[in-house]
Recover the amino acids of this structure.
């Protein structure tokens, strides 16, 4: 199993541009999570899906952020328009509900907005 | 508000000694707690967990202790090794949800 795959690994963009981060969860996992890591807030949950349905998006910072999961093997996190304060590492994680062993994380996307 | 708190941003320990990482939580609905370890440029990886029905769980050199009355858990690493140098995140879940709430992390450095 290749694990959770995120792309791109690094993204540098100019303020105001649209950014799309991608995630392929582990096959068979039915929950998917998007987190953002910053020094001040640690790992902050943005949104999570269960069986492709958004369950909790209370962590999405504002309307500039949106996430989709069109099928069980793909999810996107979009920021439009991007701002310098969005610079962070964004992680995707997946799990099989009820396993009790937590999540499997991807390697993350380091986003820099200049 | 930060429901899971790791008040020590960093910890430095000599190889062979014990490392103790601490975590506090505020939500009494939390009933499952986990520790994750993160190396630079990698995603966090699961290390050890504990259910609220237990007060201790041990896995090799790693032991997690839970004090429910104090809403406090700790991770003990004995003996510490240089390869343990990483950022450690405490996480909690509860209330019949998959959602994990993470702390801000503690950077552990184990020196020879």
């Amino acid at each position: 199993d290749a694990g959770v795959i995120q792309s791109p690994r690094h993204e540098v963009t100019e303020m105001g541009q649209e950014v799309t981060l991608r995630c392929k969860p582990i096959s068979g996992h039915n929950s998917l999570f998007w987190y953002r890591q910053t020094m001040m807030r640690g790992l902050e949950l943005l949104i999570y899906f269960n069986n492709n349905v958004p369950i909790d998006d209370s962590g999405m910072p504002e309307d500039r952020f949106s996430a989709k999961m069109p099928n069980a093997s793909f999810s996107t996190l979009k920021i439009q328009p991007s701002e310098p304060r969005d610079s962070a590492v964004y992680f995707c994680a997946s799990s099989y509900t009820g396993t009790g062993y937590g999540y499997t994380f991807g390697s993350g996307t380091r986003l820099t907005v200049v | 508000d930060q429901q899971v708190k790791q008040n020590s941003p960093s910890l430095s320990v000599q190889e062979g000694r014990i490392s103790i990482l601490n975590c506090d939580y505020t939500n009494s609905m939390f009933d499952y707690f986990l520790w994750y370890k993160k190396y630079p440029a990698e995603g966090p990886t699961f290390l050890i967990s504990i259910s609220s029905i237990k007060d201790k769980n041990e896995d090799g050199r790693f032991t997690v202790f839970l004090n429910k009355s104090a809403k406090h858990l700790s991770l003990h690493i004995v003996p510490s090794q240089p390869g343990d140098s990483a950022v450690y995140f405490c996480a909690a879940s509860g209330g019949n949800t998959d959602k994990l709430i993470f702390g801000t992390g503690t950077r552990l450095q184990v020196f020879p």
